[in-house]
Amino acid sequence: MFAATPSAHQLVLASTSPFRRELLSRLGLPFEVFAPDTDETTLPNETPVATAERLSIAKAAAVANRFPAALIIGSDQVAYIAGTAQCFGKPGTRENATQQLRLMRGKEVIFHTGLCLLNAASGRRHVRGIPTAVRFRELSDDEIQRYLDKEDALNCAGSARSEGLGISLLEYLRGDDPNALVGLPLIALCEMLRAEGLQLP
Fold first, then answer.
1. What is the C-alpha R_g of the chain?
2. Are the C-beta atoms of residues 110 and 133 closer than 8 Å to each other?
3. Taking the C-alpha atoms of 119, 120, 123 and 128 in order, what is their torsion angle to the nearest 10 degrees?
4. pLDDT band per the 50, 70, 90 thresholds, residue 8
5. C-alpha to C-alpha distance for 115 and 19, rounded to whole angstroms
6. Which residues contact residue 127 at a Cβ distance below 8 angstroms, ignoring those fewer than 6 apart?
7. What are the extents of the domains in the chain?
8. Which of 51, 84, 91, 116 could form a disulfide with 56 if both were Cys (CB 3.0 to 4.6 A apart)?
9. Is the pTM of this model over 0.85?
10. Alpha-carbon dihedral of residues 186, 187, 188, 194, nearest 10 degrees?
11. Within a 13 Å sphere around the CA of 67, how many CA atoms are in the beta-carbon half?
12. Contact 87, 55 (CB under 8 A)
């Protein structure tokens, strides 16, 4: 749906996320979107950090055969309570979202975003993990339900859409790139793209 980039590299976002697509469009680069066929199951004894970074690599690799000359972006995010291995993925249902928010209230949660840029032609890949620390307020059950009445949060890790009403659930958020919390760390991605010869800005 887009033309090739000026550097002659085709740019592909290996994701079905509308949030990542919107973020990538901010860079003003033409790109294609393709859904990766990846199993997102956590491996036994795998840390949340390792899961996010492994899946970002797997998503990029999953579409490499279809786009053998492209620069392919893979990203994945895992949320977990700081100091524990208790993870939160996409809730999928309102019941799960309610349970996630109850467990996270009053706690600091780390949203770890894995990012991979794969040069399918050379096999070279750039991989980074970008954490964002978020502390949730002591949310009442009524606040949680009012939030879920108004916000479609079933497709985001941890049920909190910070770019929407989810910001009202928080005491603070701390990290190197606010875009990482939404799902695509643009600062790190720009660095990777420049390393592969794309001109930004």
1. 17
2. yes
3. 40
4. low
5. 15
6. 53, 56, 57, 114, 115, 116
7. 10-195
8. 116
9. yes
10. 100
11. 26
12. no
- As a whole number of angstroms, the distance between CA 199 and CA 201 comes to 6
- Name the residue among 97, 53, 102, 104 with its Cα closest to residue 81: 104
Quick: pLDDT tens for 122-175: 999 999 999 999 999 999 999 999 999 999 989 888 998 888 999 999 999 999
- Residue 146 bridge partners (DSSP): none
Please identify which residue in the block is written with the tokens 């790139």. Answer: 177
Pair of tokens at residue 116: 């991979």
* Lookup result for tokens 């660095």: 191
Cite the active site residues.
Answer: 76
Matching CATH number, 10-195, of 2.60.40.1930, 3.40.50.2300, 3.90.950.10, 3.20.20.80: 3.90.950.10
Cross-strand bridge partners of residue 77: 113
**Helical H runs in the chain?**
18-25, 48-62, 94-104, 141-150, 178-182, 186-195
Q: Are strands 87-88 and 70-81 parallel, antiparallel or unpaired?
A: antiparallel
Q: Coil, helix or strand for 135?
A: strand
What is the distance of C-alpha 55 from the center of its chain? 10
